[in-house]
Every structure is written in structure tokens, then in C-alpha cells.
Amino acid sequence: MPSLLEQVDGRTSIVDETLTGDLDDGERLVGVELIGCTITDATRPGAVLAGVRPEGCTLERLDLSGVRLPDSVLDGCTLTGCKALATSWSMLREPMLSPDPCTGVDCQLSMGSFSGLDLTGARFERCVLTEADFDGATLKDVVIEDSSLAGAGFVRADLRGADLRGARDYVIDVRDARVDDLRVDSVGALGLLVPFGIVIE
User: How far apart are CA 12 and CA 5, in angstroms?
Assistant: First the structure.
């Protein structure tokens, strides 16, 4: 199977193609726009995706653990069955026009850094987000469904309108976050009381 770099072959724009192929640790993919592509079944831990813009793409069964994303943008993509452990999503560039929200389904995103990112309208379904860093992130209207947030950080996060009714294991100090219109269920609400030392038995 050709590597991803061989498939890209120096092109700066790729439309409606299916791309596979691995990137080795430290290998760089630079300055390419991917529109409506399917990127599937590849291992890229520790690789560098610099100035890469997937738009409306489907990312399936990728290992993006520890991938570096300087000056890259994810725009309206769906990640399905992906693994991205300790990945710094915070390196994503904030473009002039806000990108469309992304969706993660059945993804393992533990220890990822989303700090400071604008994730307005994003959706996470059946994901593992344990020890994820959402400090200072904009999570307005985000939906997190059937997903674990154990140990996740939300200091200075903007959770206005977020829907955490399907999330579990989280603790949020409402004194350190914006929570107007935050939706939670009765189980998740316990995580809002923990910082106050309140125990319900």
C-alpha cells in the first residue's frame, strides 16, 4: 500500500477521494486541502499535519495519537472509530470564518487537549474523553452523548447551551465556567455539586 505522502503526491487540493496509508512518527504532511474525502484505516501516531484542512471529510479508524496539528483546520468532519490519545487539538488554527462543527462517534480521545478551542455545536457520541482538557474552550451548544468525561477539566470553559444529558463521570465547578442553559440529567447533576462538598445519598 502506498504511503499517504505518495497518494497526495505533492498536490495542494484533493476532492472526493479515498485516502489510506500510514505516516511514520515525525513524518510531515504539509499544506493540503481535502474536500469531501474519506480517510480511513491508517496509523499516524506522532506524525505532523501542518496547514492541512479537511473539509466535509470522513475520518474512519485512524490512529492519531500524539499527532501534531500546527496551523491545521477541521471543518465539518466526522471522526468514526478513531483513536487520538494525548493529541493536542489545541494546535488547530482558528480561521477568519468559523468552520462547521465536527462529530466524533465511537472515538477514544482520552488525555486530548481541546484547551482554548471553539467547539461550538460539536457532537461526541459514545466517545471516551477521560482526562481531556477543555479549559478555556468554547463548548456552546455542544452535545456529548453516552460518553465518559472522567477527570476532564472545564476551568473557564463556556458551556452555555451545552447538552450533557448523555455524558457521565464529569465534575464541573460552575463558579469557574459559564453554564447558562447547560442541560444535564439527574445523575450528571451530581458532578455539579461535588465542588461544593455536597453529597446526595
Answer: 12
* Torsion angle, alpha carbons of 174, 176, 180, 182, to 10: -60
What is the rounded CA–CA span in Å between residue 53 and residue 51? 7
pLDDT per position as a tens digit, 71-128: 999 999 999 999 999 999 999 988 877 789 999 999 999 999 999 999 999 999 999 9
The number of helices, as runs of H, and strands, as runs of E, in the chain is 2, 13
Cα–Cα dist 189/183, whole Å: 9
Mean pLDDT check: name the lowest of 41-50, 150-159, 174-183.
41-50
Query: The cell 471522526 sits on which residue?
Result: 79
Main-chain dihedrals φ then ψ at residue 154, nearest 5 degrees: -130, 25
Residue 23 DSSP class: -
Note the pTM of the prediction, 2 decimals: 0.91
Cα–Cα distance between 40 and 57 in angstroms, integer?
A: 10
Q: Tell me which residue has cell 485512524.
A: 62
